[in-house]
From TrEMBL, chains A, B:
Domain of life: Bacteria
General function of this protein: Catalyzes the reversible conversion of 3-phosphohydroxypyruvate to phosphoserine and of 3-hydroxy-2-oxo-4-phosphonooxybutanoate to phosphohydroxythreonine.
Name of the protein this chain belongs to: Phosphoserine aminotransferase
InterPro entries registered for this protein in UniProt: Aminotrans_V_dom, Aminotrans_V_PyrdxlP_BS, Pser_aminoTfrase, PyrdxlP-dep_Trfase, PyrdxlP-dep_Trfase_major, PyrdxlP-dep_Trfase_small
Subunit structure: Homodimer.
Alphabetized SUPFAM superfamilies for the sequence: PLP-dependent transferases
Cofactor info, note text: Binds 1 pyridoxal phosphate per subunit.
Start and end residues of each Aminotransferase class V domain: 8-359
Cofactor: pyridoxal 5'-phosphate
PTM annotation (N6-(pyridoxal phosphate)lysine): residues: K202
An annotated Gene Ontology molecular function: pyridoxal phosphate binding
EC number(s) stated in the UniProt entry for this protein: 2.6.1.52
Residues reported in the UniProt entry to bind pyridoxal 5'-phosphate: W104, T154, D178, Q201, N243, T244
Length: 371, 371
């Protein structure tokens, strides 16, 4: 349970962590499991850290039901680095398809142009990134090395609640998803995914760790200019220890994975419990916003993100007062991204339902006082 | 002071941290300075983290006397990623000079060949990386974009106690130093250095953070294939926040910098105190090894590292017993790198003189019992 003195933190990332995870990290700081070493001080080649690393990978594979023919890589650089690392590893300098649904996929497409031919197969720019283009409208290439989507747009609050079945759309390419801001918030249908990558600093834990989960047959295609430390084949061959991995971030991610596995909601446990809670949290907040008359969310009902909920005060003259009073009420980091404006509540896995309820209660009260 | 229950950790990296730093990190874990947030949970755009980041940079600039016309970048990927990122940013695809003095500089030279012409200006391979080639013997190119050295070879235990003055050697190129394993252990003569880079996991703190300190006139030369997140100009223009930085590692580095500034040895303080202590530690260990008759160090006397001290039992049949008994005596991670064999004691800034004394006492005792 969140203790009274800790406010609710709605940061889009780096973001709130489960308090149990922080308590464990504090308790382990001077000596991990009687080893006399902080995890920060362990050689990545030593048996202590290798046990931590292997357990984290096993737990993540379990939580996300990652098939045996997919590798899990623990890398660095975040999704922004992956925007380059991915085409270096997968495009072979040829044709690729990008679906643009917000700032993040736009950035990905732009960066990829350094390494390959980029076809923008669909874009929701005309809708100001508030709707998702129907799968049927995507103009896919005949010979793309891959099709890239951002399955949850952190800034615009647009989420793909179903991933496309590319084969049914006439493409033989593997689907690549940037799932940074909703990984581990719901299951992934691996039958539709070739590569999933995610910066860790939203649902997994610390900034500075990047997860790449990819089908083994996609390894070994790197361009000669790919840095060795970012060549998926080399990283995979060295169990993510070709360069010194971000060991402490890996350990913290492992604590988060164990926390996910412990979660219960009624009959549900683990990721299913997390997903049910995320649905309940999102329903509570969207439901209140839509009925309020004071606030609004502008994203299409079928693609509203469960994780990142941008919203606006209909009278934006109250914005500063809203933020100041929210902070005073223990509700932190609600300011919207500068490119969208307004407010944004990021309600990742670590945000309890009570935190969303506290936000809704505050919003109601604020609306009454300023309506 | 190190409490009795914490053993001495001689890991080459990730490596021991000052206990005061770990205690501070544990105390801050649930709420940094009354903010109600762990540093792990802070947006990198928020005023709390920006204050942490700026203080760390200011302190490092102070400790290392970094001139105002040098940028300090907080990056990711470690020295192995820098082996590619550096030539991407600085070679302009042309000629470069590399001095090979051990495994690390060898790796750097090999990786650079993907991006530019590499001239190996000198190598100590014939000496099995135990001597440093005289500056006068270096065969420098007329038109190199830079000259690269590894100023402390972690694996072979070879350190440059003076950096070359390239102008006096007839080169107009800037000197680039990979100083990963001795940064902040001694001053850097910036009049001789264009770029210094270092993985943080030896003397600075956590794995997953890479420092790049470079003269401003060297910015803006990146090859078009450079990933945006690793383009020095872009990173510098965004105060190391173009992508989400490894925020917690940055914070921990800041705690280490503050610890360095607090150090006192007699009249000396800060980095001068650290350096004096490092000299005393190295003298103690080398002095004992050389006089022991039981152990030996094979590195030339003029280039022995103060940080990484590889040594051998003259009778290697005792190696396993040495390691097992050392561990039982609270002296951890003394096994040498597999490419060199024998033992290695890494005695970075965080290792107190008492730790080296404990090692020497154990080595004496072991020699008596097995001599």
């Amino acid at each position: 349970m969140t203790t009274p003195q800790r406010p609710y933190n709605f940061s889009a990332g780096p973001a709130a962590l489960p308090e149990e995870v922080l308590q464990q990290a504090a308790a382990d700081m001077l000596s991990w499991q009687g080893s006399g070493m902080s995890v920060l001080e362990m050689s990545h080649r030593g048996k202590e850290f290798i046990s931590i690393a292997e357990q984290a990978e096993t737990d993540l594979r379990d939580i996300l039901s990652v098939p045996a023919n997919y590798k899990i890589l623990f890398m660095q650089g975040g999704a922004i680095a992956e925007n380059a690392i991915l085409p270096m590893n997968l495009s072979e300098g040829g044709q690729t398809d990008y679906v643009v649904t917000g700032s993040w996929s736009q950035k990905s497409a732009k960066e990829a142009r350094k390494y390959c031919q980029v076809n923008v197969a669909a874009t929701n720019e005309a809708d100001k990134h508030t709707r998702l283009p129907n799968f049927g409208s995507w103009q896919l290439s005949d010979d793309a090395a891959y099709v890239h989507v951002c399955s949850n747009e952190t800034i615009h609050g647009v989420e793909m609640h179903e991933l496309p079945d590319l084969a049914s759309l006439g493409s033989k390419a593997p689907l690549v998803i940037d799932c940074s801001s909703h990984i581990a918030s719901r299951p992934i249908d691996w039958s539709r995914v070739g590569v999933a990558y995610a910066g860790a600093q939203k649902n997994i834990g610390p900034a500075g760790l990047t997860l790449v989960i990819l089908r083994e047959d996609l390894l070994g295609r790197a361009l000669p200019i790919t840095p060795s430390g970012f060549d998926y084949q080399i990283v995979a061959d060295h169990e993510s220890m070709y360069n010194t991995p971000p060991t402490y971030a890996w350990y913290l991610a492992g604590l988060v994975f164990q926390w996910i596995k412990r979660q219960q909601e009624g009959e549900l446990s683990g990721l299913a419990a997390i997903e049910a809670r995320n649905i309940a949290k999102a329903d509570l907040l969207y439901g209140y916003i839509d009925g309020s008359g004071f606030y609004e969310n502008r994203v299409g009902a079928d693609c509203r993100s469960r994780m990142n909920i941008p919203f606006f005060l209909k009278n934006e003259a109250h914005n500063d007062a809203f933020l100041a009073q929210a902070k005073a009420a223990g509700l932190l980091q609600l300011k919207g991204h500068k490119s969208v404006g307004g407010m944004r509540a990021s309600i990742y896995n670590a945000m309890p339902l009570a935190g969303v309820q506290a936000l809704v209660d505050f919003m109601k009260d604020f609306a009454q006082r300023h309506g």
